[in-house]
Amino acid sequence: MYSIHGAKAEKIESVTFMELDMVESDLEEILRNSVFMLCDEEESMLIVGRQVKNERNGRSDLTAIDNNGNVVLIEIKRDRRDIENRKEAFEFQAIRYAASYATIKSTDELVKKVYAPYIEKYRNEYETSELTSYELGIRKLNEFLERNGAVSSFNNKQRIILVASEFDDQTLSAVAWLNSNNVDISCFRLVPYKINSDIYINAEKLLPVADHDDYYINFLDRSFPAVIKTKKDITRRSLPKIEAMLTWGVVREGDTIVAKGKGDEAILLSNGNVNVGGQELSMQTWLKELFGWSSVQTYVFAIHKESGKTLSQIREDYMLQVGIED
Description:
Layout: E1 2-5, E2 8-11, H1 24-33, E3 45-53, E4 59-66, E5 71-76, H2 80-84, H3 90-101, H4 107-121, H5 133-147, E6 158-164, H6 169-180, E7 185-195, E8 198-207, H7 226-234, H8 242-248, E9 256-259, E10 265-268, E11 274-276, E12 279-281, H9 283-291, H10 298-301, E13 302-304, E14 309-310, H11 311-325
Parallel strand pairs: 5-6, 6-7
Antiparallel strand pairs: 1-2, 3-4, 4-5, 7-8, 9-10, 9-13, 10-11, 11-12, 13-14
Helix pairs in contact: 4-5, 7-11
């Protein structure tokens, strides 16, 4: 994301939901009220449930009906760490919930089990009416299906939408494979930005795409050094930024960053910015000012003084090491 100042653009670095003190339930509430963030231009959705519980105590985050009459399961994780710390895979958790929704055979059943309790919980959001939550749910659901010509196709299939600020490769690989086998499952990445006191979120659909193979994780070929294949995978998509490197512990707050070929130094801060002569700047801004270029490959031209390596080398070494262990 970029902000415009006259004829110049300034890059705005993303933040994390953790830095914004936002938890999964906050994202759930945002999407409950703004599910259009996950919709295509020609798509409509009606939210009918939140934290719906099945007979085995599994809870689905958000439930919706789309304009084709499909039940849509929206499962949310704040970030990659939340995904990887779960004992059960993100996509498998969602599949289990979708299987429960496949048992619903009528609009009456959906309203009784899901939509009416939802309306009851958020009754203040609906117009004043003498109708019960069940009656109001039946009326709204039937009207939605009728207007979209989806009465006859109600719940013929179930869709899954996974939402997170970052996905691990295992999840993306599994979702790509499910897509190729005709399972309707999508991945949306929500990336937050903070400008002054305002928070902005960029919603990006990662999957499905035409070429699923790009997301598959291949087996290691033991006849060649494993790092060859892993290195290709690392450079294929956007790489982790300095915030992740600080989390990994490969660089630390207070370390010295040197501009390659310049010798100018800055001190790394805990948020990934640098301190230059008492002024806090993003690393990109600092390097752009030094080199006088329109854009600088930050991680190539920033050298970690303590190790003598560029940030790019440090990041690649760590990711290759993790890849070999996996």
